[in-house]
Amino acid sequence: MPGKRVEIDDETWPVLKLLGQDRMMTFQELADEAFADLLKKHGRPVLLKTALKQSAARSRKAQPRAGEKRGKKRGKKK
Question: CA 57, CA 67: separation in Å to the nearest integer?
């Protein structure tokens, strides 16, 4: 997994460190949970496989199948 550098202010770091100790989690585990929650909040998939499935499903809905016409169905006029 590629490493990324994150800057955390001096007041937040000790609080995160204490939270990690209290929950017996590493900083990486805390960060993974936080990013997963953020993605979920904004309706984004966490896993690439899920993103690809959602994209394929949207693509299937957007493209009509052979023999189907695009657009709304019209009812009979009275």
Answer: 20
- Please give the C-alpha separations between residue 22 and each of 8, 9, 16, 26, 38, in angstroms, as whole numbers: 19, 20, 10, 10, 22
Read off the amino acid at residue 12.
T
Q: What tokens were used for 24?
A: 């017996």
Instruction: Categorise residue 43: left if φ over 0, alpha if ψ from -120 to 50, beta otherwise.
Output: left
From 42, 45, 67, 70, select the one nearest 56 (Cα to Cα): 45
- Is residue 73 pLDDT above 80, yes or no? no
pLDDT of residue 63: 72
Strands (E), 1-78: none
Backbone torsions φ then ψ of 28, nearest 5 degrees: -60, -45
